[in-house]
Design brief:
Blueprint (H helix, E strand, L loop, with lengths): L16 E4 L2 E4 L8 E3 L17 E4 L9 E5 L1 H4 L1 E6 L2 E7 L4 E3 L8 E3 L15 E7 L2 E11 L3 E6 L3 E6 L5 E3 L8 E3 L3 E4 L6 E9 L2 E8 L12 E4 L5 E3 L8 E3 L14 E5 L10 E5 L8 E4 L68 H6 L3 E3 L12 E3 L2 H7 L4 E2 L10 E2 L1 H26 L22 E10 L5 E13 L3 E11 L5 H20 L1
Parallel strand pairs: 2-3, 8-9, 14-15, 20-21
Antiparallel strand pairs: 1-2, 4-5, 5-6, 6-7, 7-8, 10-11, 11-12, 12-13, 13-14, 16-17, 17-18, 18-19, 19-20, 22-23, 23-24, 25-26, 27-28, 29-30, 30-31
Length: 535
């Protein structure tokens, strides 16, 4: 453009062209740049019309650097572009979609980049992006950056509903989550169908925070009287109840508690801690255990039952130890009981199969005479305060038959007791001794009769018609599975055919010993035993 257009100032008309010292003003006499366009109509200050695609180029340093340009490819192509060199910086389609980094935007705002694609930076301590619909701002949501780097999802009615701290903790209902997921409200899991939902519910009751896990019924009502309850303040856990009275409180009807093991299961008690002191347990304690065991592992202590016990048990050893007609009862060792025991029949296991070191009782009458049966009342304070009891004083019995008294230095009165089964054995031994004395007396009374001889001579195995009578023989399995042979015999003897004596004995036949040899030896021993008792 030549300065001849208007060399110098014109008459200041707004529609004139002004040029002075390399500055061109069109529509203005006060140009603010090398080229200053100003127009008063609504269509803008600059129009470029072209029969082809209009384009405007901007270059620096005489065009030696990359050229920035913008162009419009017409209504048919519907694209307006801003380019730098050969790169499309911004693309505007005729449908209003804007693309950055892409020539084909398919959304109103479409950005394509290799890594970071955008930055919204606030000059304050917070930044947020509002998302609104045609429902208005009262239904908007906001994505915010709160102080400290906390990401928040904000809603009009819930405030900061979802929060993620810069350390990665997620909070729902709290802006200060203490864990990777921190929820300060109820959680519902399951489907939307009634009767198929669960709720994780926290509340305050009885001075401690509750966590209650339960389900709903067919009408969608939560079953607050069921489920699992944990109390933070006490550590108590409840199943089926919210009124907890212990560390574990289970409420229900029918099968309230089931303990299932792969091959055995039991419950253990450690009142002094897991690694010290007392311990008790109940259940099936071993893989091959078929008995249900209640055991106290604390030394020299047992199990105390303060109420009535009803049983209908079977042989705990799996057969062979009870009679075939046995229909139940208690099988135990060393029972301590402070109670009155009523029974229709009392049996004591007494087979030769369980005995060894058998030594038959000899003369006991002198010592039996030293025993003092007594009538007594039990002192107040003991469970069984009965009066008019019959029995013995254990301390007195101990001086005469120490083998009948269990005693130690403990203060517990249970520690001193008398074995009543042993007292019965002594009574039978005394009766036998009296019987032998009676027979001896009878023989003495017959000394003047010529047809009788008072010489104490017993028949041998050969001389008596049936000196040894075998009553029964049996073979049984021992507890370790080996075969054991037993024989029940009756020994017979006579004093010159006048005074008859007999005895029934049971023996186990050792392996490698013949039955006849054993019985001959035992018969001879018995003959000597009877002879000595008569002297």
């Amino acid at each position: 453009m030549s300065p001849a257009l208007n060399d110098g100032q014109n008459d200041n008309a707004a529609d004139k062209t002004y040029y002075l010292d390399g500055v061109l003003g069109i529509g203005t006499q006060e140009p603010q740049a090398q080229l200053h366009l100003s127009a008063g109509d609504a269509w803008g200050d600059l129009r470029i019309f072209s029969p082809k695609d209009p384009e405007a180029d901007f270059a620096y340093n005489g065009g030696s650097d990359s050229v920035f340009s913008f162009s419009n490819y017409g209504a048919d192509s519907g694209t307006t572009t801003f380019r730098h060199g050969s790169r499309d910086l911004l693309v505007i389609k005729n449908d209003g979609n804007i693309g950055i980094g892409t020539a084909s935007p398919n959304h109103k705002f479409h950005v394509v980049a290799a890594d970071a694609v955008g930055l919204f930076e606030s000059t304050g301590e917070q930044a947020y992006l509002r998302l609104s619909t045609n429902e208005g701002l009262d239904s908007r949501v906001e994505i915010t950056n709160r102080p400290g780097g906390r990401l928040s999802l904000w809603t009009v009615g819930g405030g900061d509903a979802l929060n993620i701290t810069k350390t990665g903790n997620v909070g729902i209902g709290t802006t200060i989550p203490k864990a990777k997921l921190h929820v300060t409200a109820d959680i519902i899991a399951g489907s939307d169908v009634n009767g198929q939902k669960f709720i994780f519910h926290s509340r305050t009751n009885g001075g401690g925070d509750f966590l209650h896990i339960t389900g709903d019924d067919a009408n969608g009502n939560w079953l607050w009287d069921r489920g699992l309850v944990f109390v933070r303040g006490t550590g108590n856990i409840g199943i089926g109840t919210a009124n907890l009275t212990s560390r574990l409180h289970v409420a229900g009807n029918g099968g309230v508690l089931s303990l299932e093991g792969r091959d055995h299961a039991y419950i253990q008690w450690y009142p002094d801690g897991i690694n010290a002191g007392r311990k008790a347990w109940m259940g099936f304690g071993d893989v091959n255990e078929e008995r249900f065991v209640i055991a106290n592992d604390f030394p020299n202590r047992g199990v105390l039952f303060t109420g009535n016990i009803g049983t209908r048990g079977l042989d705990p050893h799996g057969g062979g130890h009870y009679p075939s007609n046995w229909d139940g009862g208690i099988h135990t060792w060393d029972v301590v009981c402070e109670a009155t025991v009523g029974y229709s029949g009392l049996r004591q296991w007494s087979s030769i199969r369980e005995k060894e070191n058998v030594d038959y009782i000899g003369k006991v009458l002198d010592r039996i005479e030293a025993l003092n049966p007594a009538r007594f009342d039990r002192k107040p304070g003991y469970h069984n305060q009965s009066k008019g009891n019959l029995g013995f004083i254990a301390e007195e019995v101990k001086e005469i038959f120490p083998e009948l008294v269990d005693a130690d230095e403990q203060s517990d009165f249970f520690a001193t007791s008398v074995r009543t089964d042993g007292m019965l054995a002594l009574a039978i031994a005394g009766i036998k001794e009296l019987s032998q004395q009676l027979r001896s007396l009878q023989s003495t009374l017959c000394i003047d009769k010529p047809e009788h001889n008072t010489l104490s001579r017993y028949t041998s195995w050969e001389d008596h018609t049936t000196p040894v009578q075998i009553l029964r023989e049996s073979t049984c399995l021992s507890r370790d599975g080996a075969n054991e042979q037993y024989v029940l015999v009756r020994f017979h003897g006579a004093v010159d055919g006048i005074s008859q004596v007999q005895c029934t004995r049971a023996y186990q036949i050792p392996n490698g010993v013949t039955k006849d040899l054993l019985l001959q030896e035992k018969y001879n021993d018995w003959c000597r035993e009877v002879q000595l008792k008569r002297i």
